[in-house]
Structures are given as structure tokens and as C-alpha cells.
Amino acid sequence: MAQRSDIVVIGGGIIGLAVARRLCLSGSAVTVLEQHRTGRGASWAAAGMLAPHCEFDEADDPYFVLCRTGLERYAGFIDALREETGCSIDYNSTGMIYPALSDRGQARLETRYDRHRRDGVPVERLTVREARRLEPNLSNRIHMALRYPADHQVENRDVVTALARSVRLHGGVVREGVTARKIVLDGLRVAGVDTTDGLWNAKTVVIAMGCRARYLDGVSPAHRIPVRPVRGQILALRAGAVPPFRHTIFTSEVYLVPRSDGRLIVGATVEEAGFRNEVTLGGVLRLFRGALELAPGLESCPLESTWSGLRPVARDGWPVLGATGTPGLFAATGHGRNGILLAPLTGDLIAEAILHDKVPTVMRPFLPDRFYPAGTGETKDDRNR
Ligand code: GLY
User: Fold this and answer.
1) What is the distance in A from the centroid of ligand 1 to the CA of 325?
2) Is the CB of 219 within 6 Å of ligand 1?
3) 135 FRET partner, CA 20 to 30 A, in 290, 339, 370, 371?
């Protein structure tokens, strides 16, 4: 017999769970269908940086504005999740340090500093001495550094665990091991989802399947979401009882994220490898080299583990958020390097779109119709972010 739900969310990663929680809080009957285990895909693989100021050069980029809005909501979101679930969530608001390792890197950071100051981005310029006073384990070969005090980081695995609990506590259904096969239509409208566990009737369906979003059958070819996987390899060092850094250390090549459990996360490669979700010798080598260049003292740290994940990246590099051209079908994917950061905001935005038929200004550039042949949205060149 068919099962039914007001809303079905396909995908139990951080985005699907954040959307589901938000809809549950508004009183909707929500079911999350997860092919494997909740939160064990890209959401588990991530390093949890909440770092729009480090990640973006330009403050007038709409994607930066989206990410900064996401960051503004994060601390409140974590407080609410802790309160709702009793889960502990490792959250670090010390900030991030972005060092330059060459003359060219320094020139780039000096330009960035001037531009960010002009645009009101919170940033500090540090001499080598100042940077090493804050973080003595940084290499003495750095040229200078920028400090971004408003960038944070969170243990993403804590967040997805708490989110799944919150959805259930608020009456949502979370089904693991159920694969969505096909969107079922009634005329032009969504009527449900055909799954490996039978049919789910639902008038509203959210596609939050990460990098697999384009492969859902039943969606009109014109409305498919053009996302692809971009692999990130990552590793954890066992750094000891005292974390080697208080800040997250960020460069465009590698980042070092200190966890309060004594691990130091070293991430991440950015690779076009299709769906090959695997760790390679070359990938790990690049991470080792990058980490040691930033902090030679890490040489003696035991290697704890390595893993990889597949970021969902849209054709133009921007998230894909909101109503698709198929009535009742919504997209929430394509978050690329910023899925952990954007999860709470995505939950709010998709809930606004579903429950109130609203497109908040910050979401407008990210509507799926920008990809449609005769869409009303802006069509952009590939940005390859
Ligand atoms: N958030 C950084 C990354 O995806 O590697």
C-alpha cells in the first residue's frame, strides 16, 4: 500500500535534514528518504568550515552574500539544535588565519586585504611575528597573514547527528536504506515518489540528493538539475591533547581545522573524478605537503584516518535552490564547498518557498530556472567555483 506524507525530502544529508527540520517546526508532515545512512555522504566527509570571508575574494558576489547570511544564522541554529536534542556540538568561533607562503601569495593577500577592508569585511593584517604569536606552530617561512575573526568552524558530524534527532523529535519520519527511483506526476504536478520501498504520495517533493540530483527519473529533461560530483580528499591527524592551533588555518591549497577532541583535519583536494569516491596516493600526498609547508612540526603527528567525499557542484558553481519548473518539485543542492555553512539558511529558504510561495531576495540568483532553455532566470557562464 502506498504511504503518504505532506512533503517528501529525497536525501538525508545535512541539506535534506535541515530542510526537513525547518518544515517539521512549521507543522508539516515530513518524510526524509535516505538511500544509505543519514548524513554519511558529503556531510560526513566535510571539514565543517563556516568561512565565507576566507572562501570569497569579492564581497558583492551574490554567492558570498548568501554564505555570509548563512553564517549570521549559524550560532543561533547550533544553540537551538543543542537545546532541542541535548546533543553536544563542537563549535569553534576563534576565527581563521590565511597565511601567504610566497611573494606572489603575499601580493594576492595584500590586494584582498585592501578590497575586504574597503567592503567592510572583518579582516586583520598580521605580520609574521603577530601570526606566530597567535599560532606558534605556524611555519616561520610564511610571509604575512590575514586573520578573519568572523569565520567559524563546526564538527559537521555532530550537526547531522543532531539534525536527524531533531527531525524525529519534531514528528518527522527519517527512512534509511530507501532509494528514490522516480518522481511520480499527476499531469504536470508532483504526486509522489516511487522508491525501493514502494510509492510515497506527496504533493511536495524536495530534491536534496547532493551530486546525484540530476539522475532522478521522472523529472522533465528541461528541469533536471545540472550538478556533478567534485571530489574532496581529506585526512585527520591525531594531534594530541592540546590542539596545535586555535584558529583554522586556511589557504587556497589546503586547510587545517583543529577539533577539540585532539584531531587536526587536513583538507581538501578539489578534483573532477566523476563518482569515484576514493582516496588516492596523489591526493594524500598533496595534503601532506600542504600541511607540512604550513606547519613543519606536524611531521611527528600520527595519521588517524583518510576519507573522501563528493561535493555537489552545479554547472555555474552556484547552489540550486527553490521551485523547479515542475509544480510541487523543489531543489536544494549544488552547495559545493559551502554545504555545511548553508544548511540552516537553505532550510529557512526552502521552507519559505514551499510554505509561503516566497522567494527571499538572497535566494533569487540561485533559482533552478536559470538553467532552463527559456527560463526567466539569469543565465550565467560557467564559473567553475
Ligand atoms: N569547505 C571546503 C571544502 O569543501 O573543501
Assistant:
1) 30
2) no
3) 339
